[in-house]
Design goal:
By secondary structure, the chain is mostly helical. The protein has a domain of about 50 residues. About 70% of the residues lie in helices and about 0% in strands.
């Protein structure tokens, strides 16, 4: 092996090219499957995060509406909650 001016060794570079050229179809398929899995996983995580944000925003909106309604009901003298009828005693 002969050292080149840039610090690389000629034989090592040739060996790595031989190794890359000798990848089997199964190895290539596994690499592609992993790449697709990573892309799909990242996309799914982004979708889940955006759905979570939308749910939290909707819950906050509904909470504000409920509190406003309760405040309005309280100011007009209406009771906020009625007692639930219990089971009849025998």
């Amino acid at each position: 092996m002969r050292a080149l001016g840039d610090g690389s060794v000629c034989g090592v570079q040739q060996e790595s090219q031989r190794v890359m050229a000798s990848k089997t179809d199964e190895q290539i398929a596994n690499e592609n499957r992993l790449r697709l899995f990573r892309e799909h996983s990242a996309r799914a995580m982004d979708e889940a995060a955006s759905e979570g944000d939308a749910i939290r925003k909707n819950m906050a909106r509904l909470r504000e509406l409920r509190l406003a309604k309760q405040a309005e009901d309280g100011s007009t003298g209406q009771t906020a909650a009625k007692a639930k009828p219990g089971k009849a005693k025998k």
